[in-house]
Structures are given as C-alpha cells and as structure tokens.
Specification:
Elements (H helix, E strand, L loop, with lengths): L1 H6 L4 H17 L13 E5 L2 E4 H19 L7 H6 L2 H21 L6 H9 L13 H10 L4 H21 L7 H12 L1 E9 L1 H4 L3 H5 L4 H10 L9 E10 H5 L6 H10 L5 E2 L2 E9 L2 H12 L11 E6 L6 H7 L7 E2 L3 E3 L2 E11 L2 E2 L2 H33 L4 H8 L2 E4 L3 E2 L11 H9 L9 E4 L2 E11 L6 H30 L4 H10 L3 E9 L1 H4 L6 H7 L7 E6 L2 E11 L7 H31 L1 E3 L1 H5 L4
Antiparallel strand pairs: 1-2, 1-19, 3-16, 3-18, 4-12, 4-13, 4-15, 5-11, 6-7, 6-10, 8-10, 9-10, 14-15, 17-18
C-alpha cells in the first residue's frame, strides 16, 4: 500500500487528499492550539509563537481523518503515509505562513467588524445547502463534530478576514490589460507543427576534414595571444599527508568478560528504560463539552469518539504538557480515564491504555552497546595519546614518513591539486586541501580532525604558482579551440543556408542527408504548454511560438545552433474559447499574485524570525 501511495504521490487523487488536509487547516486555523509549554518539544518557532510537536501531530492526525471522511471511501491515507509523502512538511509550511500573517496583523493592530466576520462564515460553502444558502443545522452539526465553539470560529474567521485584508494590500493585481492577456492566451493555446534543425559544432569537428586540418604556427600564436588569459593555470600544491584512521586502530580491540561486566555495572544507569505509557487523548474547547465527553467515555462509548481521538504510544512525562503529565503519571493502574484536565488550550481527557514500568536492561540485551561504549572510550584515550605523541615527535624533528613507520600509519602522497579542484583522488578530502593552502612550504601542520574516524597531519612539499603556460605546453588545447571556432563559423554558415531554404523541402532534405551532424526533429501539433515538457531550450521554445508560419529563424544555444521553422498553425478563436480564456487570465493574475505573496511572506519571515526543527519533524511518530 505504501508503495502505491509513493508511486501516485503526484497523481490527482493525492493532490485532492493534500488539498483536503490543507483546506481543513484553512477552515479552523491554528487559534492558539500550538503554543507549547516550557518543556515541550517544538517543530517550529514563528516570532514569539512556538508550534508544539505534540499538538502539530494532533492536528495532522485530525486533518488526515477529516480528509479521509470527505473522500467517503474513494481513497484514504494514513498519518504514516502522509508523513512518508512529505505532506506534514507542506502542512507545517502553511501553518507557519498563517501564523506569520497573524503576528503581522496583531502588530499592525488590524481589526475586523463582527458583521463582516458573520457574513464570511455564512458565505462559507461548508456551511451552505445545495442552493448556496446558509444552513444553521449543518453549521451547528459541523461545530459540534469538530469540538469548536462559535466563539472560537468567530475569532479564527476574524483572523482570516484580517489576513485577507492584509494580503489584499500587497497582492492588488485585479486585472491584466486585454491586449496582453489575449496575446498570452493565443501563445499558450495555439497549436503548432514545428520542425527543428540542430547543428552541434563539436559533432561537426568529427568530420575527416577537421581531423586532417593543419593549423600553422602564425594562427596558433595569434589565437594564443588573443585568449592567453583563458589558459591560466591556478596555483597548485603537492603535499605529504599522515592519516590516522581511528576505525583501523579500534579494529584490533578485544575486551574480557570481566571488562564488559565492570563497564556495565559502572554505567548501569545508562541502560535504564524510563516508565512509558500508551495513551489516547481527547481535546475539548470548554468545560461543558469536556464534561459531556468524559461522561460518554466513562460509559464505555469510546468508539463513538474515535474520529476525535489522538493515540500516542510510549509517552514519557516530557512528551505532555506539565499539567497533563502530572495527572497521567500519578495514575498507578490501567486502563484508566482521567477527569477533564484544564490546559492552556482548553481541556484534555486522557485514557491510559497501558503502563510500561521502568526497568534496567540486562547485560545480555545491551552487551553490544557496552562493548561499543568501551571501544569508544578506549579509542578516545588512544587517539588523544597518539596525537600528542605525534605532535611531540614533529616538534622534535621527526619526519612524517618516520612517524608513519614508527606507529604503522598510512601516508598519502597527494600529487599536485588546486584550491577549487572538484575531483580529488588518493583519499584527499576538502579539509586536507584547505590545510594545504593555509600552510607554508615544508611546514608540518597540526593534527586536524576530519570526522570521528579520520584525522591527519599535513606537510606542503611544493607549490606551483599561478601562471600562464607557454604555447608549447598548451598547443593541443589551443589547436582544439581553433578547430571549435572554425566549426562554429561553419555551423553558422550551414544554419543560415538552412534558413534560406525555407519552402524548399527537397534542398533541405538533401542538405540534412549530406551532413550527419545536422539533427532534425519534428514536433507535431502541440501547444506551448505541452511542448515545454520536451525540455526544449527556452529561446527555441519562445521563437517557435512567436514566429510566422513558413519562416525559419536561427537561434544560438549553449550546445550550438538551431534553425526553427513553424510549418503549420491552428489559430485560436477567442470567441469559441471564452471560458478557457477567462481561466487563463485568472491563472495569470494568480501567478503574479502568488509571486508577490511569496516575496511578502519571505520578507515577513525575515522580519519576525522563523525556525523549523527538522529532527523533531522527522521523528513525529517516534
């Protein structure tokens, strides 16, 4: 099932599920539920607002349930699948955006009238009947099912209205001139039959005439003189590097049974598993609703409220709000349902399903961990001693080669490399390159740590200064450059010849057949949107959908030259596509507004400060 969802992650059904999850967020907002307590783990911090991990998971679970309910069995998704598809990160981004707007609206002291808020609620499609009229019974049923009071909804819709007013001030584009939108619509919707002729100068150089071509000394000298700077060789350095491989040292460690037993007893507290509990949490917005829910749960009607429950297993005291934790971990038996607990966000009722008592893991279970701890402890001591010994020996005049022999360590002879070289051989790592350029020739540097398993000490043996080599040293490169220039010149001539043959299919076909380096490609009856998927060069794409029929134009691209010909077009009749034109115009306005909105949100994030905690997001269910 998970494989199915991954494979369909970009399909329409997954887009609907994601839309439903974010839609439910848009309806109820975040209304203070995310404010975390002092000890709570948080997934993000937006200005002075903390988004708690526990509550974010609660909202994600609630949104997934609501999305599945809306789909009515046509499809469904679990919280685990939502997380594996990255939906939780999209949801967090939406919450962060809304929160940052709430903070900015608060700071600007923006307000919304009660009448406007009620009008917004009454016009919400979720509360209207099939004729679009406000349905009071439907409204009350949805609020009751969602455990949201009317006061909370009004407050949240008030924030939404204020944010809409705030955004309308920055995304004020309401219309695009018809002359522009019509031309863009025609360009996007018009179907064209296109022919492309590509000429790659590098392939042109494969002709026998180029391989046999002679370049005289005068031409070589002239080209070299004109392009001398392009042949500059950066400063290069060569080094001898003594490598300390911690994994190699630790490979020969052996520990006796008594060593292992003693280490286990000395750190027995590290192998203790704290008490954990499996719980179900229900949240209510007010005391009256909480008492009614508690009464129902005590009667055993747990399944009735399954849609509003949050199941969390292996909970420790730090995973819950302090006031909830004190009650839950004071209970000594399970199953047990607590009384309603007043919190900062309303009331919580917790069912303790299972109590997992604290215990110390026996040696047989944690033996591998004990040995690993012993190995790391001994390795740290040995590495510290070895590095100090090596530094003392270097100070005493010993060479890196002598030290390597004495301690059976590896030596790397680097060969010459330059500072910005991407591909490094012989086990060279960027830290070694940096060290080589920080040291003088003949100098033995300090011991440098690459990571926990690798350290090194380096000596710079030689430096090749930055220089422009003599012509003899780069003559092969110069020759290739001259040939490429000649190939480009010839490619332009051939491309212009092809361009001039517009309307002469026979001559064009003969020229293409005679030159294997000319690649022809037909793109039949496609719009700009569909042909864009063929990953054409943007300049080629623009030319193909802007030129007249029967005309050939020449476009230069990074890989050579392309002759573009539009053979046929199917003009777009605006009158017969008014609906599509209106949708395209709205889409263009939306794209422009989204770009402005994105820039505005980025500016607000920088102004108020946003931090997200990937580690907490990656461990939502652990």
């Amino acid at each position: 099932m998970l494989h199915f969802f991954r494979s369909k992650a970009s399909s329409w059904i997954m887009k609907i599920i994601l839309g439903l999850i974010l839609l439910s967020f848009g309806l109820w907002g975040v209304s203070g539920i995310f404010a975390g307590h002092a000890n709570q783990q948080i997934v993000a911090k937006v200005g002075d607002v903390k988004i708690g991990k526990e509550y974010f998971l609660h909202v994600l679970q609630q949104r997934v349930r609501e999305a599945n309910k809306a789909l009515k069995g046509t499809a469904s998704i679990t919280v685990e699948q939502a997380i594996s598809l990255g939906i939780h990160k999209v949801l967090l981004n939406e919450i962060v955006n809304k929160t940052i707007l709430d903070i900015e609206s608060r700071d600007l002291k923006l307000t919304a009238g009660l009448g406007s808020i009620k009008a917004l609620i009454k016009s919400d499609p979720i509360f209207t009947d099939k004729n679009g009229h406000f349905d009071r019974d439907k409204y009350e049923e949805i609020l009751k099912r969602s455990s949201v009071t009317e006061e909370q909804l009004i407050a949240d819709k008030g924030k939404s209205l204020i944010n809409m007013q705030l955004l309308s001030a920055v995304t004020a584009i309401s219309n695009i001139p018809a002359t522009l939108s019509i031309e863009m619509f025609k360009m996007m919707m018009e179907e064209r039959y296109i022919k492309l002729y590509s000429i790659d100068p590098v392939q042109l150089m494969n002709k026998k005439s180029y391989k046999k071509m002679k370049i005289d000394a005068a031409e070589m000298e002239q080209h070299y003189g004109e392009k001398k700077e392009s042949y500059k060789v950066p400063e290069k350095r060569r080094a001898t590097i003594l490598v300390i491989n911690a994994d190699q040292i630790a490979k020969n460690y052996k520990f006796s049974k008594s060593d292992i037993q003693q280490a286990y007893e000395e750190k027995i507290g590290d192998y203790a598993i704290p008490e954990k509990r499996d719980v179900i949490i229900w949240t209510a917005s007010d005391k009256k609703t909480a008492n009614a829910l508690h009464k129902d749960l005590k009667k055993g009607h747990v399944k009735k409220h399954k849609d509003t429950e949050t199941v969390i297993n292996n909970v420790t005291p730090d995973d819950l709000q302090d006031v909830v934790s004190e009650v839950v971990f004071d209970v000594s038996k399970a199953p047990f349902i607590t009384d309603p607990i007043k919190t900062e966000d309303g009331y919580q009722i917790v069912k303790i399903k299972k109590i997992k008592a604290s215990h110390t893991q026996p040696l047989a279970v944690v033996k591998a961990q004990v040995i690993d701890d012993l190995r790391q402890q001994k390795l740290s001591e040995d590495i510290a001693t070895l590095t100090q010994t090596i530094e003392d020996e270097v100070s005493g005049g010993s060479t890196l080669e002598e030290i390597a022999r004495n301690h059976k360590l590896n030596i790397i002879n680097s060969g010459f490399f330059h500072k910005s070289q991407r591909k490094l051989n012989n086990g060279i790592v960027p830290e070694m390159v940096k060290a080589a350029y920080d040291q003088a020739v003949g100098e033995d540097g300090p011991v440098v740590e690459v990571n926990q398993s690798k350290l090194f000490i380096l000596r710079v043996d030689a430096v090749q200064p930055e220089h422009i080599p003599e012509l003899d040293a780069v003559k092969d490169t110069v020759r290739t450059d001259i040939l490429l220039k000649k190939a480009k010149d010839e490619a332009v001539i051939i491309a212009k010849k092809l361009q001039s043959m517009s309307g002469n299919k026979k001559a064009t076909d003969e020229l293409v057949r005679a030159n294997a380096f000319i690649q022809s490609k037909t793109i039949g009856w496609k719009t700009m949107q569909t042909v864009a998927k063929d990953k054409l060069d943007p300049k080629v794409l623009e030319k193909a959908f802007s030129q007249k029929t029967g005309v050939r134009d020449l476009v230069e691209t990074p890989s050579g030259f392309v002759v573009v010909e539009t053979i046929y077009t199917k003009p777009v009749e605006i009158e017969s596509k008014l609906r599509e034109y209106k949708e395209t115009k709205n889409m263009l306005m939306e794209v422009l507004n989204q770009d402005i909105f994105g820039q505005y949100i980025d500016a607000l994030k920088e102004k108020h400060g946003v931090e997200t905690y990937d580690e907490e997001m990656d461990t939502l269910l652990s």
